[in-house]
Design brief:
With about 300 residues, this protein is α/β, with parallel strands linked by helices. It is built from 13 helices and six strands.
Length: about 300
């Protein structure tokens, strides 16, 4: 009787172990069947573009061009450098929270925050070394025919843009970042484009209280200009005297002074400048389609 009981217990233990092994195998199969959220597992260009703003080939090209693999390895993170870059672009493009990204990438939300801040710093240090301001001959070569006939000396078209930020704790910093135009706290930068629309100049960001004129002078874009160059801008850039010192010209829409309305020549000139400036506004809008910029940017990033 004792022998039968022992055999029954042994058989029961064996069944328990077998069931446990089956459960472990099922869990392993499920784990293997669930694809990791990495670039290689994005199935097509449509999904990759929705996630990052680039096609699969475009993502690979921009990652190779930036050459940040070694820089990203210095962080000693558990993810591959290419996965860190992927995470960065997904957050920029989608604007989703760190909590949601932590689920996708199977890391904690605090780790997502550390990754994003680290990658932002690495990319800033890398990109600020790029010289994207083209030679005068390159600008002329790329000009549309009609634009060349009317504005052949135009070197760059500039405008400023602002990004809302979270309200700083310090009253002094609140005042410095307070934007007159946006009625909130912002950071402000200047963008320049070539006549065909390609971006040729990007400034760092400054506190939102800075004027367009101050920002232009601070960034020394004029150091890149050559005699007889023309810069097209908005009405906020009233620095003709600075341009005269370097034999260049600033063109912006004229103001109504003592007149009730513009004369015909001024209307035509204003219309031409406004039409040209549409291109720089379009370039700015291409930056702001990244949903990360739809919410106030953390002030401490």
């Amino acid at each position: 009787m004792h022998s039968v009981s022992s055999q029954t217990e042994t058989f029961s233990d064996a069944m328990d172990r077998m069931n446990k092994l089956k459960d472990e195998r099922k869990e392993l199969q499920n784990s293997l069947g669930r694809k990791a959220f990495i670039p290689e597992n994005i199935p097509n260009d449509t999904k990759m573009k929705a996630l990052t703003g680039f096609t699969i080939k475009g993502f690979s090209c921009i990652y190779s061009f930036l050459n940040v693999e070694e820089d990203l390895q210095t962080g000693n993170f558990c993810k591959r450098p290419v996965d860190l870059f992927f995470l960065f672009l997904v957050k920029l493009r989608s604007g989703i929270s760190n909590e949601f990204l932590s689920v996708l990438f199977e890391i904690s939300d605090s780790t997502v925050s550390r990754y994003f801040t680290f990658i932002t710093t690495v990319l800033y240090e890398k990109l600020k070394l790029l010289h994207i301001f083209p030679s005068k001959s390159k600008v002329v070569e790329s000009m549309p025919r009609q634009f060349y006939s009317e504005n052949r000396d135009c070197r760059v078209i500039v405008d400023c843009t602002e990004f809302p930020i979270q309200k700083p704790n310090s009253p002094a910093e609140q005042q410095m970042t307070s934007s007159f135009y946006k009625n909130t706290n912002t950071l402000k930068g200047m963008l320049g484009i070539m006549p065909p629309g390609s971006i040729s100049f990007i400034s760092p960001l400054y506190c939102g209280s800075i004027s367009d004129k101050e920002l232009f002078i601070k960034r020394q874009l004029m150091d890149l200009l050559e005699p007889n160059d023309v810069v097209m801008a908005d009405k906020g850039f009233q620095i003709e005297q600075e341009f005269q010192k370097i034999s260049c010209k600033l063109k912006y829409p004229k103001f109504l002074k003592d007149c009730i309305q513009f004369d015909a020549s001024d209307r035509i000139e204003n219309c031409k400048i406004s039409n040209v400036r549409v291109a720089v506004e379009r370039a700015i809008s291409q930056i702001k389609i990244y949903k990360y910029f739809e919410r106030p940017i953390p002030y401490t990033i």
